[in-house]
Amino acid sequence: MTKFVIATALVVSIGFVTSASAQSADPSLGRHLAKTVCSVCHQTDAASPTPGPNPAAPSFVDISRMPSMSELAIKVFLRSSHPSMPNIILSPEEIDSVTAYIRSLTRK
After folding, report:
1. Is 24 helix (H, G, I), strand (E, B) or coil?
2. Helix, strand, coil percentages for the chain (3-state, nearest 5)
3. Is 101:31 a contact under the CB 8 Å cutoff?
4. Are the C-beta atoms of 38 and 53 separated by less than 8 Å?
5. What is the pLDDT of residues 43-93, one digit of tens each?
């Protein structure tokens, strides 16, 4: 019985966390962050036909269209440091917003 109660509490907690993060996602803030922080290397704008400053850095449109780049995968990526990228530290709300912006590019 105790395991059932713990499992139920965990599921309910995850639901609250998921809905809270969904409410903090702001694609317009994500677009602003992308333009000010990420555009040093990446092409962040869907409308621009030119590549980003670093040819090795994929465009955000290309990232949004990768089958492996689910919402969760993007969030995990943004929370992890990578040798080929600067160690940019974003708040959870900023990560949610950049993720929402990248995911919005799939439709464009």
Report:
1. helix
2. 65, 0, 35
3. yes
4. no
5. 999 888 888 999 999 999 999 999 999 999 999 999 998 888 888 999 999
